[in-house]
Write a structure and sequence with these properties.
By secondary structure, the chain is α+β, with helices and mostly antiparallel strands. It has 12 helices and 11 strands. It has 2 domains: 132 residues, Phosphorylase Kinase, domain 1, CATH 3.30.200; 223 residues, Transferase(Phosphotransferase) domain 1 (Transferase(Phosphotransferase), domain 1, Orthogonal Bundle), CATH 1.10.510.10. It catalyses: L-threonyl-[protein] + ATP = O-phospho-L-threonyl-[protein] + ADP + H(+); L-seryl-[protein] + ATP = O-phospho-L-seryl-[protein] + ADP + H(+).
């Protein structure tokens, strides 16, 4: 059997998966929703654009369909947070959260499905456009605006003690058009690709919704009007926080200990890693070795010390010697930015990327950072 291009549809819940093998025009929830397009997929779910007919009106929604393996846990732990603390946080700033949930039966079992407002293209597309035009990453002012947007969302979440846990490039998206006629026209111009069948399963390829008005090289007065948002609420937590074993926290040092922890400051670490990736086009930390090897890379890149309170941790006790060939954070930035750009950005990153989570600046303090405030004005001020 040929390999699946995206999620492994043949693997069951017993294998740790159990995706819903859905197809275009398939109905969900007893015919209430009709699948229009596949938007994407991840380790625990796939995401679909659906339409809902009400008389002569057509509404569009995004439905996140969890694997059978992940559905029960999402129902008991994730859903209450989304319906409670995350929903309350939304009064401070707009971001996509669930409107409704239901269960759908598939060949592998029962799937939890979350219905939310549709969203559009990922910011990663602009990063690809920039690098294909010879740039290492996005312009600094675009990164500043993105950081400001993320901090605004994190501040709203933290008022409800919510840890986002997914401050990553793949979770930065643009709002899609809310005009149903425009969306219908967009879908007509860009129909879904033809469904393949592999091993008897319908294989539909992802096609994120398009809002192609944003360009990577726009001036700040236009970037300030972007409808950019932080999505990806599949791993949110409220106290007591505890790192998920299979989830990547951008190598946040506290999650690499033999007795790992996480918290609101972990989102700050992830934001620092994200900002570096956006401006350079590269990950700051690339080690895929043991937890101790990854901690060694972090220590050497940041030229920071391991907290005294961690010295008894078994992963810290076996830290390898310093690797003098590892390039520092400052040097990496200065390879792609001018001195005028690199100095203030490095100062900001140094407030996020501190090994000791207790020493990282808070989201509220970071909102007041001069480098961030430069992107917090309305478009008429640029």
């Amino acid at each position: 059997m040929a390999p699946f291009p995206e999620e492994p549809l043949n693997l069951s819940a017993a294998d740790g998966f159990g995706y819903l093998p859905a197809d275009i025009n398939q109905t969900l929830h007893g015919g209430k929703y009709t699948i229009v397009r596949k938007l994407g997929w991840g380790p625990r779910s796939s995401t679909w654009l659906v339409s809902e007919k009400t008389g002569d009106e057509t509404a569009y929604w995004v439905v996140q369909v969890f694997t059978v393996s992940a559905s029960k846990g999402a129902d008991t732990t994730l859903l209450p947070i989304l319906q409670g603390a995350v929903a309350r946080a939304r009064k401070w700033i707009s971001f996509p959260t669930i409107n409704y949930s239901f269960w759908e039966t598939g060949v592998h079992g029962e799937h939890l499905c979350l219905v939310m407002v549709e969203y559009g293209l990922p910011l990663s597309g602009l990063l690809r456009d920039a690098t294909s035009n010879g740039r290492p990453g996005l312009p600094v002012h675009v990164v500043q605006y993105t950081v400001f947007t993320v901090l605004s969302t994190l501040e709203s979440l933290q008022k409800e003690e919510v840890m986002h846990s997914g401050v990553k490039l793949e979770n930065l998206v643009f709002w899609a058009s809310v005009d149903e006629e425009e969306l219908a026209e967009h879908l007509a111009e860009r129909p879904p690709e033809k469904t393949e069948f592999i091993g008897g399963f319908p294989v539909v390829r992802s096609q994120p919704l398009g809002d192609e008005t944003a360009k990577w090289d726009e001036p700040m007065r236009e970037v300030a009007d972007w409808m950019l948002l932080l999505a990806g609420f599949g791993h949110v937590q409220v106290p007591p926080y505890a790192p998920e074993k299979e989830h990547d926290y951008s190598s946040a040092p506290e999650t690499l200990l033999a007795n790992p922890t996480c918290g609101l400051s972990t989102d700050v670490w992830m934001l620092g890693c994200l900002a570096f990736e956006l401006v350079t086009g590269e990950k700051l930390f690339t080690s895929t070795g043991t937890a101790s090897e990854r901690l060694r890379e972090i220590r050497d890149v940041l030229q920071d010390s391991i907290p005294d309170a961690w010295q008894g941790d078994s992963n810290v006790q076996v830290l390898p010697d310093t690797n003098t060939s590892i390039q520092s954070l400052e040097k990496s930035l200065r390879q792609v930015l001018t001195e005028y750009e690199a100095t203030p950005m490095c100062a900001f990153l140094r407030k996020c990327l501190v090994i000791d989570p207790a020493a990282r600046q808070s989201v509220r303090d970071l909102r007041g950072d001069d480098w961030v405030k430069a992107a917090s004005k309305c478009s008429c001020c640029y």
